[in-house]
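Running co-folding for iron/sulfur cluster.
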Amino acid sequence: MIRPMRITIAQYSLSGCEGCALRLLNIITSNEKLIDHIELVSSRVMGIPEVRQADVAFVDGSVLRDNEEEFLMEIRSKSRILVALGTCSIMGGLNALRELYTVAELEEQVYGMKLNIGHLDSAKPLDSIVKVDYIIPGCPPPTWEIEEFLLCLLLGKEFRLTDRTVCFECTSQGLPCLLERGEVCFGPVIRGGCNAICPKYGIPCWGCRGIVEEYGMERLIENLRKHNVSPERVKEYIRIFLLKTKLRTLMR
Ligand code: SF4
Ligand code: SF4
Ligand code: SF4
């Protein structure tokens, strides 16, 4: 049973699609177990744009624009616990693709003109700027895991991410292996918790929950080679979520 306590929550978005924010807000406005124990004190999406003191701040997106570093530091100074929510905030995520182009090239491709958008040279994860207390990975993170995190906080229990890989969750459901068919699947080294949702629908895992098994990477690369997957194809898929990881370094 949840103790009769209330916590204040703040939700902030840096550069990103805000899919993580919507998932979080959906949970805290509709989960019957949590709703009476949570007070939302800040969220631009919900019409409360100010940075306010809070027990827990969830921050999604990465630091990509020149005013976001200062914004993040202000958030940190007003939050007892800071949670990096989603892949963009933990390892750059899709935003890291920005590092493959110049700002001028991107402005031309996206807007067809020069706009002088104040972009930094790289998509910085939150922990490169401030102390992060917890991470909840995924693009966006699974609903159950955000709920579990909030329940642990309310119950005073320790929250831990699973150390199981996507491969573990995939094979335990008896799903056919896409890697064995020559597809680029990073499941053997990627953190589970998503119940191998992509392989379940016939889509390889491209690693949105980050790498859990650093030591398994050489083995993964060997396996990809064994199934005649070219390094060029692997590099192409690393760009999606794993651009800032050791896997990229190993494939150079
Ligand atoms: S992690 Fe994915 S869902 Fe979350 S903000 Fe980034 S792109 Fe959007
Ligand atoms: S499809 Fe991917 S996640 Fe599933 S068993 Fe094969 S390598 Fe592992
Ligand atoms: S299978 Fe891989 S890419 Fe898909 S949700 Fe899970 S970790 Fe993310």
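Result summary
The chain has two domains: 7-155, 166-250.
The first helix runs from residue 19 to 30.
Job closed.
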